[in-house]
């Protein structure tokens, strides 16, 4: 399983990666990093890269590689160096043919510089690529309705985790509606238990609350307008209602009094849940592996999970999901072997690739994965995630990875000000509407 630190690198990585604004395409049609039949694949060099290494070896020995006169060469970049090295490479004559990314806003600058192959028609006309992945995940990595990426790692939806022992002791049930959630908050507070653990030091855990509330109240179209660059979208009534709901939670003590000094990255927030000091925790699916590493007995016996509840009168579907849908391979428009690159990307939908992801503790986004999840480290948890995403009409990419790069830090700053009471919901909306 990937640990919580991976989410930190996802957020931090995307921050640096999308700061590639101002890139210009140099050269064209002459191939990129490789020479002859070599396809260079630049990849984020964490522990999971062994899955991509095996894929390259498998492809290089295949008939497809011979037919396309292609050999894939992995270029592994240390995790913390990846975004900056990619940005530099994409502005040089030695740019990779394909590269790992976070989809959405993380590739916006490359798209605007004309450096990406639009894969929309390629996917539509290719039987393997068009049927190989969960539709909500493919769509989540798109820009302006066009596909620029092929899913190549596991899904990371945001879930509502809870402490089973605390729930049993206080006769609570996992909430399916907002009223039930508020009822749980009131009962936990009365019992002297912090309703929700929240790592306010990092800010991105606060972001998850607004992501889900805006979706449940206004539907996915509200954020779609924002992520496509229209700042007026922040003025949608759903954003104000979500901000008001957050203020209500904070004022009622749903996160305790000291959440702004609690850290997720150092394990503070997970510890509150594991030790029964908090009843619930809204967090990405990596919370399971975090708890397994730090509090294994709790993870195996008392860690529960459920979907984010519905919001009465809201336009959003309770089946919608937010989080990190996946990581993606994108193809450089300057590749000298587009057919070979596409042939390699097909392997991401294969049974062998899916099995390698599962063996690594990931939950793949391939359509064949569900019947293979019995071999995962925790089949029950893996199947819950998979079915959640499989049934989701919409999977919204984390806002800090989806928005315009110039908006990212100001947005996070305003979210934190809202949570700590330094701005009102109205001031929050006004500040975000003013983003340029």
From TrEMBL:
<keyword id="KW-0732">Signal</keyword>
<keyword id="KW-0449">Lipoprotein</keyword>
<dbReference type="InterPro" id="IPR006059">
    <property type="entry name" value="SBP"/>
</dbReference>
<dbReference type="Pfam" id="PF01547">
    <property type="entry name" value="SBP_bac_1"/>
</dbReference>
<protein>
    <submittedName>
        <fullName>Putative sugar-binding lipoprotein</fullName>
    </submittedName>
</protein>
<feature type="signal peptide">
    <location>
        <begin position="1"/>
        <end position="20"/>
    </location>
</feature>
<dbReference type="InterPro" id="IPR050490">
    <property type="entry name" value="Bact_solute-bd_prot1"/>
</dbReference>
């Amino acid at each position: 399983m990937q640990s919580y630190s991976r989410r930190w690198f996802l957020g931090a990585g995307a921050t640096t990666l999308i700061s590639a604004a101002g890139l210009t395409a140099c050269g064209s049609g002459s191939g990129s990093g490789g020479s002859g039949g070599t396809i260079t694949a630049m990849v984020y060099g964490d522990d999971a890269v062994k899955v991509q290494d095996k894929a390259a070896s498998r492809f290089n020995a295949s008939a497809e590689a011979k037919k396309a006169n292609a050999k894939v060469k992995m270029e592994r970049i240390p995790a913390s160096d990846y975004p900056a090295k990619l940005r530099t490479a994409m502005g040089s004559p030695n740019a990779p043919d394909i590269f790992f990314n976070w989809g959405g806003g993380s590739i916006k600058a490359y798209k605007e510089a004309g450096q990406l192959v639009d894969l929309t028609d390629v996917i539509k006309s290719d039987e393997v690529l068009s049927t190989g992945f969960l539709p909500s995940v493919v769509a989540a990595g798109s820009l302006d309705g066009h596909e620029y990426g092929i899913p190549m790692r596991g899904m990371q939806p945001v879930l509502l985790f809870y402490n089973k022992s605390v729930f049993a002791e206080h006769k609570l049930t996992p909430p399916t509606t907002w009223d039930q959630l508020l009822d749980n908050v009131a009962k936990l507070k009365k019992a002297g238990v912090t309703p929700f653990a929240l790592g306010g030091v990092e800010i991105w855990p606060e972001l998850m609350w607004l992501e889900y509330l805006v979706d449940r109240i206004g539907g996915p179209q509200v954020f779609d307008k924002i992520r496509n660059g229209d700042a007026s979208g922040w003025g949608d009534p759903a954003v104000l209602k979500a901000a008001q709901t957050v203020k209500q939670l904070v004022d009622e003590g749903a996160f305790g009094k000291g959440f702004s000094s609690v850290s997720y990255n150092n394990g503070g927030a997970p510890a509150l849940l594991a030790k029964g000091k908090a009843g619930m925790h809204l967090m990405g699916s990596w919370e399971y592996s975090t708890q397994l590493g730090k509090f294994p007995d709790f993870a195996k016996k008392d860690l529960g999970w459920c979907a984010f509840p519905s919001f009465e009168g809201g336009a959003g579907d309770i089946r919608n999901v937010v989080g990190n849908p996946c990581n993606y391979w994108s193809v450089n428009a300057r590749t000298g072997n587009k057919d070979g690159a596409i042939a390699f990307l097909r392997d991401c939908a294969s049974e062998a690739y899916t099995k390698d992801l599962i063996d690594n503790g990931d939950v793949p986004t391939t359509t064949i994965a569900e019947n293979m999840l019995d071999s995962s480290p925790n089949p029950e948890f893996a199947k819950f995630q998979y079915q959640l995403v499989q049934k989701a009409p919409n999977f919204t990419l984390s806002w800090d990875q989806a928005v315009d790069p110039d908006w990212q830090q100001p947005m996070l700053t305003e979210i934190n000000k809202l949570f700590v009471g330094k701005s009102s919901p109205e001031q929050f909306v006004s500040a975000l509407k003013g983003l340029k």
